[in-house]
Amino acid sequence: MNVAREEIEACVTKQNFDGAQRAKNRLDELDGIMIGFTEKLKHFTQEVRFEKNDDFTLIKCLSIVCELFQESPFKLNCDRLHSLVDNLVIPAVKNESEIVRHVAVRALGLACLVNLYLAEIGRAHV
User: Fold this and answer.
1) Is 104 exposed, middle or buried (0-12, 13-18, 19+ CB in 10 A)?
2) pLDDT tens digits, 40-75
3) What is the torsional sign of CA 112, 81, 50, 61?
4) 76: which DSSP letter?
5) Coil/strand/helix, residue 3
6) Termini Cα distance of the chain
7) Local confidence band at 30 (pLDDT 50, 70, 90 cut-offs)
8) For residues 93 and 111, what is the distance between their CA atoms, to the nearest angstrom?
9) Is pLDDT above 70 for 18?
């Protein structure tokens, strides 16, 4: 959508009004698609409102993360990895349960082995 907006600005600057109109039509189509996705997402989030935060669920999720980091045949470097660490592993390191903290520290260590950037973040939280 940002590309379409930039294209509109560029066309208007060059006084290419036909190109600007085509870009505007494409932007309107993308807006419609985005509204459709937003409506579907609202429906989906209304169905799934509860979140499990018990120790068993956290340990299970952290164990899956540990396996992911151990079995990864390549070095992961992506936003999902950072999001996983930021949203699951680091809060679990601060958990009250000793077992959850132990598995979270293991997951954080494995994440640090996979990615140097995460090693720098992990050092600040442990």
Assistant:
1) buried
2) 777 665 555 566 778 899 999 999 999 988 876 555
3) negative
4) -
5) helix
6) 40
7) confident
8) 13
9) yes
